Amino acid sequence: MSGPWGWRYLFRLALGIVFVWASLAKIGDLAGFAAEMHNYHILPIGLENLFAMTLPWIELLAGVALVVNFAPRAATILLGGLLVVFLLAILSAIIRNLDIACGCFGTSDATRTGWIALLRDVGFLVLAGVGYPWGAAARLGAARPATAS
User: I want to staple 75 with a disulfide (CB 3.0 to 4.6 A). Which of 18, 62, 144, 146 is the partner?
Assistant: First the structure.
């Protein structure tokens, strides 16, 4: 397989599935997710609900885009950027000794913020980096020119 459906797609597919799964869990309990966001004490209270209501939908759209290989560069960059934000939030909780639920996979996620959650997100960031479609053929609608034999 070459082009946008090459081996890198498998990494994007895995990342997309993870984010679709995580987003659906959050969408299923937006109030609970908002409460978990509040526990981080990072955002102003006025932005917590807005963030909790929009983030899962962004994750869902970007995750689906990766699964169906639509705009893979944009979706990979978006999810990679979100992962950096998540890493910073988890690291902040570790530094401040907050014993809170991660909220990474919705309120049913029993994972606490800590080194395991941090390393898991580093692994997801590696998926984004390895899966990023670097070639020109990866652009949406880009086709490889036919070569004369």
Answer: 62
